[in-house]
Write a structure and sequence with these properties.
With 346 residues, the chain is α+β, with helices and mostly antiparallel strands. It has 5 helices and 17 strands.
Length: 346
Amino acid sequence: MRRAVLAWVIALAAIALAPARADAHIGSPDVFFEGDAGPYRLVVTVRTPDVIPGIAQIEIRSASPDVREVSVVPLRLTGPGSKLPPTPDRAAPAATDPQFFTASLWLMERGSLQVRIAVDGARGRGTLGVPVPAVAQRTLAMTRGLGGLLIALMLVLALSLVSIVAGAARAATLDPGAPVPDRARRRARRTAIGVGHADPARSALGDGATLVWDRPAHLRAGEPLTLRFRAIDGAGAPVALEPYMGMAGHTMVVRDDATVFAHLHPNGSVAMPALELARQTTATTDTAMPGMAMPGMDMAAMHAAPVRPEDLEFPYGFPRPGAYRLFVQVRHAGRIVTGAFDARVE
């Protein structure tokens, strides 16, 4: 009995001492956003660095060919730093695609930042602020000596915890039960998120309606794309959807091993509160942009108007290969319904 109690306590100590981190996005650090810089529609990808300070890679695609120049600058999302930007860097147009621009930016501090994008073209100037979380994505290698010292200290702490808890549990009659094998843990996790080997492009919504994913022929990791969905009836005719929380819908992306989770809106993976802060700071520092148009996110307009087929689109890029499941939530006939789709990313 005493050995069982000690084994249980050691397991709890190991879990308690293990590092943990909770994020709205797990394993999907890049930022994908679609919005308007004045009269210019842009699709922006910000590939954040693994460590801070570090270099972020910026990719910008304009929907129109009349953009002449694009510049980018990093600054704070709020506070005085959001109103005092440094000298911007000019984004370089691609040699084979004049509507595609790239730039590299140093992110020198951690926290809530934004990449402010200024566009100049035939229709004047425009500005767009894209929120970017500047956090370390990985841990650098530790020296062998420091690692050994930390392991020794961890063992001392674990043994001390075991001694204290074991003394309190000597008279207890709790049965810790048999430990759960790792294989069973993995199977339960896969079952919980519902990722299987099937790969359907349709998902029933009820009342004869079906949600269809216009899936590309190939899904490749690291490539930005637009996830396009539409609702149809049994005859293939479009089905009217209703706004859900002020926008066309929501999409959750989950990898089969639960190492990737992303919550997407029709304008991308940016959190709505951060986007509003970026909009406010951009509007106050650029008179050419009193507000930032965000189709699919105007609460009053979206509650009054039905969802258009082109509204149910989500900019994203799968971070690495593997099996994923996509959960798409929409409002249909007054009910919140969820469509589920499997995806295999190369």
